[in-house]
Amino acid sequence: MEDHDVRSALKEYVTEAEPPIGLTGDGVLTAGRRSRRRRLTTIVAVVALAVAGFPVGTALIALPDRAEPASISPCGEKSPEETPKAVTARLECLLDQAIRTYVTPADPLKLEAYPATDKTLYVMSAEVSDRTGSLYVDLATNDGTLLSAGTACEVQEPTPTTCSASLIRGGTLVETTIRKPRNPDFVIYQAAYRTAQALVVVSSSNSTEAGTDAQPYPPGQRELPPLTQAQLREIALTPGLVP
Predict the structure, then answer these.
(1) Distance from C-alpha of 208 to C-alpha of 228, rounded to nearest angstrom
(2) Most buried residue among 75, 135, 179, 218 by CB atoms closer than 10 A?
(3) Residue range 128-146: mean pLDDT, rounded
(4) What radius of gyration, in Å, describes the C-alpha atoms of the chain?
(5) Residue 40 has what pLDDT?
(6) What are the CB-based long-range contacts (under 8 Å, 24+) for 152-155?
(7) In sequence order, what are the beta bridge partners of 177?
(8) If residue 178 lies in a helix (H) or strand (E), which one and from where to where?
(9) What is the pTM of this model?
(10) How many CB atoms lie within 10 A of CB 239?
């Protein structure tokens, strides 16, 4: 994928109509240029799914709130005095603990920060220990905009195979499964959680191979993604994931 194609795709999904993630095309493009081709393809796909999954006017199903832990996190707490480096370290620590609860990464987990005009996009990508599946996390601050009534699942692009929307702990959770008709072996699970403070998108696929222009969705290397939808939900709902 050439730079001008990437720029076009990112602008379509990131800058037009002021999507909820609130990042500029140039900011995400910078992130893509520093990443491998597979990661860039995933960022475009994840941002597209996140934008589609959080339209203004979403019909929600209320779920019981999950109690916040009373103890202080060993990863530290968010504070006005945090430096950008400290914010990244805190978020990386929280994600590392949450992810390792369910799966063993093949390599050390690393959260990368990509500053945009008025926000920072945090990106993490990893392969599981047997290198037959992947995990991706995108995290960004939110401007306080919340969602009203509507239909979340009916407006998503690409159309998911399954989708559910719920209201939990004052935020919106959209969970999807995607299978493409031309390549049904490739499966993506995703949990996207939006609060007034942050947007967290956690995805898992059953392949580590790179997509191409001719075949954006690579062949599946295992039957299903290494993380279940329930596990992705728990990671997305990890307390403290606020830049």
Answers:
(1) 17
(2) 135
(3) 90
(4) 17
(5) 42
(6) 152/53, 152/54, 152/55, 152/58, 152/59, 152/60, 155/52, 155/55
(7) 162, 189
(8) strand 171-180
(9) 0.74
(10) 13
Residue 199: which H helix or E strand, with range? strand 198-205
Residues 149 and 54 sit within 8 Å (Cβ to Cβ) = no
Our CA angle for 197, 198, 199, nearest 5°, is: 150
Q: Which are the contacts of 63, defined by CB distance < 8 A and separation ≥ 6?
A: 166, 167, 168, 173
The mean pLDDT value for 174-182 works out to 87
Residue at token pair 């949990």: 191
Q: Given the DSSP bridges, would you call strands 134-141 and 198-205 parallel, antiparallel or unpaired?
A: antiparallel
Closest CA to 46 of 188, 208, 206, 213: 188
**Between 72 and 29, residue with greater pLDDT:** 72
Per-position b or e across 184-199, b if 16+ CB within 10 A of its CB: eebbbbbbbbbbeebb
| Count of Cβ atoms closer than 10 Å to residue 88 Cβ | 18
Cβ 229 vs Cβ 166: under 8 Å:
no
What CA–CA distance (Å, rounded) separates 177 from 160? 6
DSSP-derived 3-state class of residue 238: coil
